[in-house]
Amino acid sequence: MAEQMWRVVAVFRVVTLAYAAFLVIRDDASFAHPAGGFLALAVMAVWTVVTVIAYAQPAGRSPWLIGADVAVTAGLVLSTRLILAAGQVNTGAPTIPAAWAASSVLACAVAGGPAGGLSGAAVIVAADLAERQALPQSTFNNAVLVLIAGGVGGYVVQLGLRAEAAVDSAARREAAITERERIARGVHDSVLQVLALVSARGRDLGGEAAELARLAGEQESALRTLVSGASAPPAVVEDIVTALGGLGSVEVSERVITTEKIRFSLPKEVRQS
């Protein structure tokens, strides 16, 4: 989810850079300082390449780079007053970055959720308001949209990450249940049947075999509890392992109470009896 959102930010940045370039080329003749427009556009292009490459890797999404992203964007917004005529700025002309300025806000939203998105948006809006002596309706509308993009974008990202975590958790639980059922079938088909056989055969033979039958019966009961998923204290598990060790060779490959993996083999003389 997070990786996909960072790719969205990269695509948005590239697309809005193209739109900003179109505006600069179209309106260049009306700029007070036309060369300044192309210089700002060059800075935007270089910064776009830097951020797209950096944000493509988790290590590149550091707080200082995201903060620098907002600072560079705010600086480009403020440069509008140096490039356009004062009358154009005060009547609500688009800033030089135009929609590209929202790229840094989206980066803040993806990295920091609603709080991060709103913080980045507040800086960009403040820069836009600081360069104007008046507050045209278009500027006010753009400010509101940037704040909404930062807050709502961060909230959507946060919801997506929570949903992704919930799906992963459910998948892990399902895998654990499937594994426990698989092991339970194996234990039921081998260990429990042999314990039941030893218990019954020992009672028939009597003598020392009767004690072995009693132990086998106790461990069969404890192991059935273990397989069923009920909690069993470690002492019970140790008793099971000890008892099975008395029956033959025992290997415990993973000491997990709910998914105990046990393999054993009876001595040849017991199997023949």
Characteristic key phrases:
mainly alpha, 273 residues, rod-shaped, 77% helix
- Assembly type of the chains comes to single chain
Roughly how many Å apart are the termini? 61 Å
The poorly predicted ranges are: 244-273
Based on secondary structure, the structural category is: mainly alpha
Q: What is the number of helices? A: 11
Q: Please tally the β strands and state the result.
A: 2
* Main pleated-sheet profile: 2 strands, antiparallel
Spatial shape: rod-shaped
What fraction strand?
under 5%
Task: Give the helices and strands as they follow along the chain.
Answer: HHHHHHHHHHEEH
Summary, kept brief:
The protein is mainly α and 273 residues long. The chain contains eleven helices and two strands, in the order H-H-H-H-H-H-H-H-H-H-E-E-H.
Characterization of the model:
By secondary structure, the protein is mainly alpha-helical. The protein folds into 2 domains: 167 residues; 83 residues, no CATH class. Helices cover 77% and strands 4% of the residues. It is built from 11 helices and 2 strands. The C terminus is likely disordered.
How are the secondary structure elements laid out?
Layout: H1 2-27, H2 34-55, H3 63-78, H4 80-83, H5 86-90, H6 102-130, H7 137-189, H8 191-205, H9 208-227, H10 234-247, E1 249-254, E2 261-265, H11 268-272
Antiparallel strand pairs: 1-2
